Amino acid sequence: MANAAGLDWVEEAWTNARDKTRRIAGRIGANFPHASQGGVYVLEPPHWWTAGFWPGMLWLFVQGGGEEGLRRIAEACEEKLDDVLRDYTKLDHDIGFMWTLTSLASYKLTGHAESRRRALQAANYLAGRFNLKGRYIRAWNPWSENDDNAGIAIIDCAMNVPLLFWASAESGDPRYRHIAEAHLDTVLERFVRPDGSVYHIVRFDPETGDFLEGIGGQGFAPESAWSRGTAWALYGLSLAYHHSRKQAYLDAAKRVAHFFLANLPDDLVPHWDFRLPPEITKYRDSSAGACAASGLLLLSELVGGTESRLYREPAVRMLESLYRHYGAWDDEKEEGLIRHGTSHYPEGKNIDVPLIYGDYFFVEGLSRLRGNDKIFWQ
């Protein structure tokens, strides 16, 4: 339980988030919400990349104590994903997001053998996306005719490779870890800029592995700084150091963290891109803030000592700001927990709305502050 000075709000926030999740679980059930529209979470098909975040959030509350009703829903979500795992054709690099927060979460909390099998199967599929020449994990499949994306890798995948680290530790086979580290080495070389900002998308020649270009993706422009991509890198590289103890990952995580923190507005909740021209609306992306906060809390543990405060204190303040100024706790017409997320501004999709991954990372951050030592990515 959170009882440190200045953290009394954490238990209040946990209770509000848990109670609201209980309420909306009655409608959402064993389905897969993504973004709230008009106060209602739109449900996506099971193969959609965000499918793990709702059951992952339920598992966090189960880990926090009891919640058998939420546990049954989380287990049903995991079972629904079996069709996606069998179909295979709709799987991409987000395998890590999906099965880390469902099967791996279940296995870590319950020891369920079938969950272990699913997580290992998913890890095999993720490892199978590795391009040896370019030393990267391919992002997407060709979703439309003539869609050539065999050379595409994205920064989001830094959060997917913890599944591979777990698979090596669980199976005793180092190949998964080798692939994870090779991909992360490419992240250091090609994604993270000297100032700590990152590219969202990098295109390689899939035959030779040569670097071709950096692409803006969900950021404003190729050389801008998409805040959620920055958060993926901050947290993903912190996790990489946690699993590998390679100093280069820790150094890069700190560089990205410093860039992130230096570019925050007064309320510590980032705009959707850190480099926007004045004519572009600076919508917040609360999901980037929530993800970064949880990553900063891990980073503070990894560095230890007096340096720890550099990362822990802003993380706590960020989560408190999300709770007090962005939470929809008393709004019965809004299913989302945390308002003002921005999913994909360049495509005009889900702007200034609650996002399920924002909700998830907010709850994960609270769970860390309450002393949870069973964070699923770790």
Can you offer a commentary on this structure?
This protein has 378 residues and is mainly alpha-helical. It has one domain (8-369): Glycosyltransferase (Alpha/alpha barrel). It has 13 helices and 9 strands. It has a 3-stranded antiparallel beta sheet, with no helix packed on it. Strands 1-2 form a two-stranded antiparallel ribbon. 53% of the residues are buried.
Jot down its keywords.
globular; 9% strand; Glycosyltransferase; 378 residues; 13 helices; mainly alpha
SSE succession: HEEHHHHHEEEHHEEHHHHEEH
CATH class: Mainly Alpha
Q: Using the CA coordinates, give the radius of gyration.
A: 19 Å
Name the CATH architecture: Alpha/alpha barrel
Major β-sheet strand ordering: 5-6-7
Helix content: 40-55%
Entry summary:
Helices cover 51% and strands 9% of the residues.
List the helices and strands and how they pair.
Elements: H1 8-28, E1 33-37, E2 40-43, H2 53-63, H3 68-80, H4 82-87, H5 95-110, H6 113-127, E3 130-131, E4 136-137, E5 152-154, H7 162-171, H8 175-191, E6 201-204, E7 211-215, H9 227-244, H10 247-262, H11 286-303, H12 308-326, E8 341-344, E9 349-353, H13 356-369
Antiparallel strand pairs: 1-2, 3-4, 5-6, 6-7, 8-9
